[in-house]
Predict the structure.
Amino acid sequence: MQTKFILDEDQLPRQWYNIIPDLPGPMAPVVHPGTLKPVTPDDLLPLFPMPIIEQEVSQQRWIDIPEEVLDIYRLWRPAPMYRAHRLEKALDTPAKIYYKYEGVSPAGSHKPNTAIPQAFYNKQFGTKRIATETGAGQWGSSMALACQMFGLECTVYMVKVSFGQKPYRKSMMQLWGADVIPSPSDQTNAGRKILEMDADSPGSLGIAISEAVEDAATREDTRYALGSVLNHVCTHQTVIGLEAQKQMEMAGDYPDVVIACHGGGSNFAGLAFPFAADKASGKDVRIVAMEPASCPTLTKGVYDFDFGDTAKMAPISKMYTLGHDFVPPGIHAGGLRYHGAAPLVSQLVDAGIVEAKAVPQLASFEAAVLFSRSEGIIPAPESSHAIRGAIDEALQAKEEGKEKVVLFNLSGHGHVDMAAYDAYFSGELEDYEYPEEAIADSLAHLPKIEGV
Amino acid sequence: MQTKFILDEDQLPRQWYNIIPDLPGPMAPVVHPGTLKPVTPDDLLPLFPMPIIEQEVSQQRWIDIPEEVLDIYRLWRPAPMYRAHRLEKALDTPAKIYYKYEGVSPAGSHKPNTAIPQAFYNKQFGTKRIATETGAGQWGSSMALACQMFGLECTVYMVKVSFGQKPYRKSMMQLWGADVIPSPSDQTNAGRKILEMDADSPGSLGIAISEAVEDAATREDTRYALGSVLNHVCTHQTVIGLEAQKQMEMAGDYPDVVIACHGGGSNFAGLAFPFAADKASGKDVRIVAMEPASCPTLTKGVYDFDFGDTAKMAPISKMYTLGHDFVPPGIHAGGLRYHGAAPLVSQLVDAGIVEAKAVPQLASFEAAVLFSRSEGIIPAPESSHAIRGAIDEALQAKEEGKEKVVLFNLSGHGHVDMAAYDAYFSGELEDYEYPEEAIADSLAHLPKIEGV
């Protein structure tokens, strides 16, 4: 019984799949946060290099992956796909469970899939320095790695409370040569303003984004980089699903259901979009996004225009959102705590092509423990939401006495998240009530966008 | 330019290589710590199951790997071998550098290669529970994983200071279902004795071994497991070198020099022994063990009989040793802080088949940083000693203007060792003077073994 499905290096995809030309309808425009008019490429140029801006709106279905990017992808790609024989046995299910494993990257997650090309295009464009933000640290460490590989300077504004709580992620960034600044900082107007009001502010992702954006916008040599949500990020991540399609073929199976966790949408898009293309061509495949019940963007949010950040400095997109000033409870899957969702994913959910489900924190940890004890690999708390989804599908198959092929994305390992497991075992973790009032409150503050 | 050399699952070795029949001379006997006479299988039966005792002295060159073990090896094996193109470029060397990467196991190191078969043979033999010890936690977490896979209970005595300092390793063991007890504990006579003298004792590997051995020896359902030094451990690890031989063939190269770090000897033996067999058949290959300068067992120790543990409860073996009461300085490569060396490796060093070199702590971290910044992967502090050896060989090749093929073992990743990198970057780490007096002192206490 084969356990791993491994592609040779020469089967590494040579092109990313851009879903934009295959969307079920036209894309909504992105709106300038100041003028409330559609943004132009010139509006974005202080933040992003032109090749990235072009990709953001490209109508080209296949985008060549530059050789320089492939060279670095080869350090860990193609990534393995596994058949979870032991998990199936533990569940006593007739379902076949496959998982794509992205924890093999040097940073331990799928994030370098886009960090590497973002660094490459910036280098090519003449950028000397990248400013970005990070919460739990997965994205910051991936961007630090990518900048190191292309000889770019990198400054990461790290949410101050995480800077203290996640020292290992901070150390990884420093090892890869990045300058890590606890946010709010005195380096930016946005940071200083917060510190004046509250010198002990623990920071937030919203504040850190504002600092990184201000840093990039005010320095000629510097551009900004984002690890999720945007179209080009989703496109870069499609290497995951393109490889998985080949690996499912090796396995002689095709998934009935494809599952990934969903925060901003990047690992979800990465696995799902190539299968969404199959679905559009008539394949019978369900595609499921698993989000945390405490931050239920796709299941309880609205599909409307909203700011990408709390400080209302980032562009306005049409997306599923809980409102830009919704602050999710402090669950341990830090990477899934975002008020919005990738516009591309949102459009697919709105069109009924993608299903969304919410899972409580404890149920996701329960799934992670069962997975670790059967398959060995310790999953990141974010990825555990996908595992929960896969287990539930497999249990349903058992109940119905049906064969079913399940494929999910194990987006990262949990070696630097062991404190979350400690908290789970010690009984400190709890499920949060669905934050109905807070969501209603923040949904009352959506920007009014008309006539775009 | 190919970066990774990946074997299919059907190329996973089906047999381990046992070097005992190919040793340059007869093995010295193992001596009972009480009687000072050669041990018998019966002496060992309270500690180990019979199949392990038989492997310890087997004259069979090839030992079949049980199917049940192969099934679990497949979760991460065959492990990849890489060509370090970026490191070569950074060094501007004509040398070709290859590395075998063992950090892909669920525990992040080579240790499961022997933990899995040890758990299997114990299960087969009827053992219900394993007692073992761990210092930094690599071995304890691997044994916890292995016991989980075979449904054995697992108790790990973890050196108390590490229990506090390495919380992530402790959490991994708990996630995989092990009971982790800070040592010294009140669970054993050995532990209670220490606590009576010093209630705040930080513990030591020597004490933890004594506790685990006592636990196993006094409970009928329990056996003991050791993660290095012993013959069967070295044999199980040879999957590393056997795979690497096939992968070097894929690469169309053969190593001029094979390098691994050396603490107790297990990852070193794993990579080196299959190449030592090649060398015995006439191949021109150098084999180098890299040890820490602060615990220079192979380079400054003597080749003589000594106890395996500080408390003089473990069997006496002929090996390179710094004396059983030598306490190495607190370097961050915790896995290399052992006063002795595997008897099999010791015999090869004594016969001139294996070279040994010592490397100071700071030089090993310098190598680790260069490696992380060129190849991406963050190495464990132990493995960094091997990287230093490889870099030095490559720099020498550059100086001499020679082509040279270097192969080293990257025995584990450093994701749970980031505190050591922090200490390095903050300038807190130092090189220890060669502890000449301490070694002379402890060498004065070797047991007198005669007529065996």
User: Anything to note?
Assistant: Chain B has 19 helices and 15 strands. The longest helix of chain B spans residues 383-400. Chain B has a mean pLDDT of 94. Chain B touches chain A at residues 1-4, 6, 8-9, 71-72, 74-76, 82, 86, 104-106, 108, 145, 148-149, 167-168, 171-172, 174-177, 369, 372-373, 375-378, 413, 415-416, 418-419, 421-422, 425 (CB under 8 Å).
